[in-house]
Design goal:
By secondary structure, this protein is α+β, with helices and mostly antiparallel strands. The chain is about 30% helix and about 25% strand. Strands 1-2-3-4-5 form a 5-stranded mixed β-sheet. Helix 1 packs across helix 2. It is globular. The model has no long low-confidence stretch (mean pLDDT about 90).
Length: about 170
Amino acid sequence: MSDNPDHSRDSGAPKIRFAEPVDAAALAELRYALRSSTGKATEPRSDFLARCTAWMENHLTNEQRWRCWVAEHDEELIGAVWLQLVEKIPNPRAETEHHAYLTNFYIDEVARGRGLGSRLLHQVIEWCQSHDVHAVILWPTERSRSLYQRHGFAVREDIMELVLNSPPK
């Protein structure tokens, strides 16, 4: 399997591709839209965008653990999903040696309801299947839960979580 995401053959459909460092500012805007829609933003928008753009540009340039897929329509980013590879300690058993943490999955409101989220998620899953990933983990929102379930995600009983610092809502 190639590292290049599937590009839609329909010229009117959004194109899915890997993010590039030049996408960092637009990705930061999507991040702000996502997080400010789920609670009150406490950091000034301009400060957040500067900080997030720098982080994203750095991680898209230098990181091997982070991947980002974007949905682009008419040269504008309308969706994105990030994935972090979590390396496992070497194992003598026949087991793959990575987990993947899926995060920051966002589709612009005007592009929702047309299957774009499913297309993006499908690309991520295919990539994970071809890159030594044992399991994909995530924390869904109530609204996104059905999307993940349609793609085979399930609530597990063998994972535990300790929340150390809950941010205010």
